[in-house]
Amino acid sequence: MIKIFNIIQIVIISASVALSVYFYQHFPARVPMHWNVAGEIDGWSSRGFGAFLFPVILIAIYFLFEILPKIDPRRANYPEFKKVYSIFKTAIMAIFFGIYILTGLSGLGVKVAVDLWIPIGIGLLFIILGNYFGKLRNNYFVGIRTPWTLSNEEVWNKTHRLGGKLFILGGVAMMLMGVIPVGIRIVLFIAVVLMISVVPILYSYIIHKRLSK
Question: pTM, whole model, 2 decimals?
């Protein structure tokens, strides 16, 4: 199974590099690179930047995930969630590749509902990550890393079980952003960010205090 994920990752990188050459040859001098919550273009870049940015990011993600288990002081825990680690790596790379295709098509002049598809992609990523949060083992780089989760295995496990549910819920909410009124999108986005970031931190502190007693 790990080999299959590795193959997928290499295919994603290879496809992105091939697309970058095509995009560079066919992009106009200025290409869209950023959209607001209404799906309107509000940021532009040069042809080269638009064509090559995402392949560079994908290659960086690939090697970063290869390096982290080797430098983590708790590297001995990685074999316990090796498959989950590969799923995380593959899912993140796949979402970035999907965003690259969307922005590339937009750069070629194809009308793309970026405000619909990117939230769906990010929401799907949240759901995938959340589904496997409970299988992560204590480490310094992947997961909900607070002073309390890193210092106590039970706090880590309980926090990640809650965090997984919150990520799934947040993912579903993100996927709805493209179909709700524009005025509500930013409110929903802020609510999702606070839910998946602040709540697990507070929860890990509360659980740690309870166990300390």
Answer: 0.93
